[in-house]
Amino acid sequence: MNIKQYWDNAVSYTEYLRDAGERLGNPKDTQEADYAEYYRLGIQRMNRMWEKYLPNSEQVEKFAQKNFRGKILIISESWCGDASQVIPVVVKFFEQFEVRITYRDQEPSLIDNYLTNGGKSIPIVIFLDEDFNEIAHWGPRPKHGTELLNKHKANPEEFTKDQFYVELQTYYAKNRGFDTIEELLELL
């Protein structure tokens, strides 16, 4: 796997947001048209999280002690609910480093190397050293989000998909990226 190839073809957060708007306003295929509502929600959530998220000073200090000198590559798609909550936080927290985004559904796709229980769940955040070697990866959501998903999967009649989505989005809104950054810092 040549991860540098994916890095070279990846986009900035600004380009990612612009592309999401273009896909919403000008879908290039049936899937993009069918996902219009998800693109709209994703853009809304990313903008809101960008405005609301403020890096925690203790986490900033903890990160400074890590002496990280690399790059961050994220596998994502702008229609993804988890990605819309995670990516603005990661980009803002690690703003002094290069952060790029590669699309899950492009070919060839990097996601096949980062499957979650056999699925192409996103986002996946990959920490790279200066020579593009992987240091660690994380994703697709904070542990609490995974616990909510597992609760739904264990008893979908009692904890419905709608309840799962409401609780997950409420968690993201209240937590404001703290758990995401905490878990990322644990990996470094």
What is the structure about, briefly put?
This protein is an alpha+beta fold. It contains 9 helices and 4 strands.
Write the layout of secondary structure elements.
Elements: H1 3-9, H2 13-25, H3 30-34, H4 36-52, H5 57-64, E1 71-76, H6 81-93, E2 99-103, E3 124-128, E4 134-138, H7 143-154, H8 161-175, H9 178-187
Parallel strand pairs: 1-2
Antiparallel strand pairs: 1-3, 3-4
Organism: Epilithonimonas pallida
Protein name: Thioredoxin
Pfam families: Thioredoxin_9 (PF14595)
Describe the structure.
The protein has helices at 3-9, 13-25, 30-34, 36-52, 57-64, 81-93, 143-154, 161-175, 178-187; strands at residues 71-76, 99-103, 124-128, 134-138. It has 9 helices and 4 strands. Helix 2 packs antiparallel against helix 4 and helix 7 (143-154) runs antiparallel to helix 8 (161-175). The mean pLDDT is 95. Helix 6 (81-93) links the parallel strand 1 and strand 2.
